[in-house]
Amino acid sequence: MPIKTIMNEPSELSQILALLNKLDTDVRATNKRLEAETEENKKKFEKWDERYFQLVKDQGNTARTIIIAAASVVILSPVLGAVADLVKNHLNW
Q: What pLDDT, on the 0 to 100 scale, is given for residue 1?
């Protein structure tokens, strides 16, 4: 049986070219899908970044409110105690 080379066989060459064209088409389609998914993921990350920063901001506001309330209680408790004693002595309860 004689040895054939690919270059001498037009049908085999056309099959290889057809496969290469299909491969090129598939690669281009895959690249387009990857680009679309990359953009979608980028938008998702930006959305989650915004949510995270808003959460941190809200937690900071909550912490500040708690600290102010606690400091107010510590500072005002002697004043409220004195007012209560004054009212008690004044009304003779």
A: 42
